[in-house]
Amino acid sequence: MKRYIILLLVFILFCVPKSVSATNEGYEMVTKVPKEDIVLYAKKMNGLYRDFKIDFKGETYFRPFWINDTNPTYAPKLFYEDINEDGKKELIITLTKGYGSGLLDEEVYVYRYTNGLIDVIVDNPLAIIYKNVKTKLTTEKAEINLGDKVSIIDTKSIEPSHLFEDIGFGSIIDYEVINKNLMVRVSGQITPAMFVGDIIITYE
């Protein structure tokens, strides 16, 4: 997944396949793909899901180091779609590492199947942004440059002491699969409580 499209919106394996009959002791089902034999299990420990297990069409894969909050609103998500248009579906799993006021930190895992689930590398969205987007923040304006597109937001009404040194990215990282496209929304932040827009990245 080395190719991607960026859209700017502004506003004020550790794994060895095992038989599916492997024990489920201590595990609970977290989510599944409807009408597909794909289920994600985990153990609930101290308010977190840990020690994940993927049951994929009769094969079992363990992911002992994954974590996700047990809050149902931020439960892991499973998608099974052909996101690279090669005629074969990929398994996409999103996990929420942290959330709160002005915070949503998700990570994504993508697998293709070739005699077992094979990891597909997904470029870090922050690395994509730092490579392709230029920003500038002053007491007058917040400026975002993406290629030949420039977006400017007035910051004169904001207390200067509240402003960051530059527009920050990383507090909101939100993955989705929409119309068979893997997408991530990364919000730009100029104060501890104010966001000025979203960078939308579509992986090709």
C-alpha termini separation: 6 Å
Specify the overall morphology.
globular
Radius of gyration: 20 Å
Residue share in helix: under 10%
What structural category characterises the helix and strand content? mainly beta
Major sheet description: 8 strands, mixed
**Number of E-type strands:** 16
Mean pLDDT: 90
- Unreliable stretches, pLDDT < 50, 5 or more residues? 12-22
Binned strand content: over 45%
Succession of helices and strands: EEEEEEEEEEHEEEEEE
Number of helical elements: 1
Provide a descriptive summary of the structure in words.
- This protein has 204 residues and is mostly beta strands.
- The chain is 4% helix and 60% strand.
- It contains one helix and 16 strands.
- The strands form three sheets. Strands 1, 7, 8, 9, 10, 14, 15 and 16 form an eight-stranded mixed sheet that branches.
- A hairpin with a 3-residue loop joins strand 9 (103-113) and strand 10 (117-120).
- It starts with a strand and ends with a strand.
- 25% of the residues are buried.
- Mean pLDDT is 90; it is low at 12-22.
